[in-house]
Amino acid sequence: MDETLLMIPGPTRVAPRVLKAMSENIVNHRSAIFGQILKDTSQMMSDVFRTTNKSYLLTGSGTAAMEAAMVNILKKGDKVLNVVGGKFGQRFMQIVEAHGGTSLPLEVEWGQAVNPDEVGFLLEEHEDIKAVTVVHNETSTGVVNPIKELGKILRDHDTLYVVDTVSSLAGDDVEVDDYGIDICVTGSQKCMAAPPGMASITLSNDAWDVVNRTDSASYYLNLKKYKKSGDADPPETPYTPSVSLIYAMHEALKIIMDEGLKNRINRHKLAAKATRNGVKALGLELFPEEEVSSTTVTAVRMPEGVTDGEFRGTMRNKYRVELAGGQDHLKGNIFRIGHMGNITHRELITTFSAMEMTLRELGFDIQMGEGVAAVADTYLPEDV
Amino acid sequence: MDETLLMIPGPTRVAPRVLKAMSENIVNHRSAIFGQILKDTSQMMSDVFRTTNKSYLLTGSGTAAMEAAMVNILKKGDKVLNVVGGKFGQRFMQIVEAHGGTSLPLEVEWGQAVNPDEVGFLLEEHEDIKAVTVVHNETSTGVVNPIKELGKILRDHDTLYVVDTVSSLAGDDVEVDDYGIDICVTGSQKCMAAPPGMASITLSNDAWDVVNRTDSASYYLNLKKYKKSGDADPPETPYTPSVSLIYAMHEALKIIMDEGLKNRINRHKLAAKATRNGVKALGLELFPEEEVSSTTVTAVRMPEGVTDGEFRGTMRNKYRVELAGGQDHLKGNIFRIGHMGNITHRELITTFSAMEMTLRELGFDIQMGEGVAAVADTYLPEDV
User: Fold this and answer.
1) What is the side-by-side strand order in the sheet with A297-301?
2) What digits encode the pLDDT tens for the residues A263-319?
3) SS3 state of residue A140
4) Chain A to chain B, count of Cβ pairs less than 8 Å apart?
5) Contact across the interface for B244 and A24, Cβ inside 8 Å
6) Could you say which of A10, A91, A240 has the minimum Cβ distance to residue B61?
7) Taking CB atoms and an 8 Å limit, are A61 and B220 in contact across chains?
8) Can you list the domains of chain B with their CATH numbers?
9) For labeling, which of A92, A196, A326, B150 is most exposed (least CB within 10 Å)?
10) Interface predicted TM-score (ipTM) of this complex, two decimals
């Protein structure tokens, strides 16, 4: 279909093993054989979330899971503190408002991470905050938020801690139980390297207590139904699930287990470091401060004097490497290199080589090979 | 994974061509190449719906599309007439109630079809009915409702006509424009024989007028966003879609076009007739009256003196043919033979042969071969 190297922050290319598993024919979604696959997949999701709680699979995009996280705990007028530092932080706020909740947005400049103390101050100021939402890895800005530190602050408050790990889970440190996360959501198509179209959610006992005394404002996303079906033996889903995508997730999760979650996260961290080193070697500027730069997607300021169409267009059409652009007010101002899922040294070398050729072609006075060398250097053992 | 012959009313086995298309690797969901696939798939969906209006794809189950049909037109307290003659008719009612609408249920005995005149009477009696919902093919009872005749009655009333064709579209007559249907929803995994996990929806101009002046009570299922993204060039989806399942739907729809929609519907009608003839030849009793018996799933009363576990268990475990049981209060009282998607003479012969062996084994005095012969006879040309 398209031999372009996909270096966007999801969806990512998936391994042949995963495509093969997905191409098995359909079975009855209410059979013992499918129940076993569902059970294993859910268990492996919990292992990746690092929680002893159950995980549930939703047939839908990550956004469906974000909405599920809100509609099952909110009553009209309930106050939610939304950390908003990018498009996905905004989305949580919009979801709260769509359901008649009152959003208290903590605006963080796009490109910066939230300061956990500011969340603490707001929680002291407003005693009636039902939940705090934060996007771990803000895909739109390439910023990682300090969810561990936030968890420490939230531990002293009677509020639900809701974290979107759509573009970080299995690629960066997420310890649901250890960080005290009450509701954690993710998508299939990012660091887990399964195809898009599935989401997963896990809830703490505290979160279930709230869910159980709240009428869900959504029928399709009513988590009480997912729990009832999912806790049966064999487990089921309340509505016909995407059987093929669950085969695919099952296989993608087995690959994660084979690689080892820790190894996989370290591989992502190394790819992020190599990318940042390559960017700097080419004289380009990271969009976020390096300390808060994402482990799974690197946002870079568009060099002066070149348009998004010229830069990304040449990358894609001539060198067959697809990068992502900026979203909303960052459109044209940044580009983003996704390095999540199965990305290794090889794909980064190809990407930086294409970037060097593209920049030279567009008239930039860069030293050919500097970016590629900086990437390769990062992968060398430290004692070489 | 499982060599069982799947004779349930969805999901159905899918053609190797479809599995092959689905196993292509992932592309950027916001690229021209994917936009073309989305455009073609949406156009073919409209062709199958038999409408000149656009169709939109939702990453979710058929239930997500049912909810989308309601949450985008309803305000609190709005009255909806729900035809309820089975589990899926009930579901529409529950969705209306979950969103604060007032359901006016027209209860139809399970196993019977709605009388369009009764809908007419209720519409005369209540002038403020915003929408009427009906499930074309009530999968739970094997009954087909007269959506063409209902359309004629609704034409004289200022109400939206909402039809669930999840288990009928591409297997039975559905003429969205001709019947005056305002909102029509379907799922991927039934007569279209694509894998489960996708849904589609199409709306008339009258329906869009209502949608445009209504705040959607769902964020994920906000149809205004699907329209905005879907009408762009190239079209997109508002949230990351299930890329692989759209590849699969695209291929499944091409198969439908290759076969010809009319031919495909006739093939389903013939399979239904053969199934009913086989059932009667074995001395079993159809659950619905024959005139309203579904074209895609045949519901049969469980013979006296045998349990669901014995009958379907033997069918499944010994003869590897999977039938569906009854749902809710019909559990144990009926079984259902799905004959949708790619089902031909061959699968029905296998099914009836297994049914004959199973029934004999369970002590029934049936004439071996009678069911199989009745099926085969139905497929013979009339002049033989």
Assistant:
1) A297-301, A334-338, A324-325
2) 999 999 999 999 999 999 999 999 999 999 999 999 999 999 999 999 999 999 999
3) coil
4) 191
5) no
6) A240
7) yes
8) 5-9+260-379 (3.90.1150.10), 16-258 (3.40.640.10)
9) A326
10) 0.95
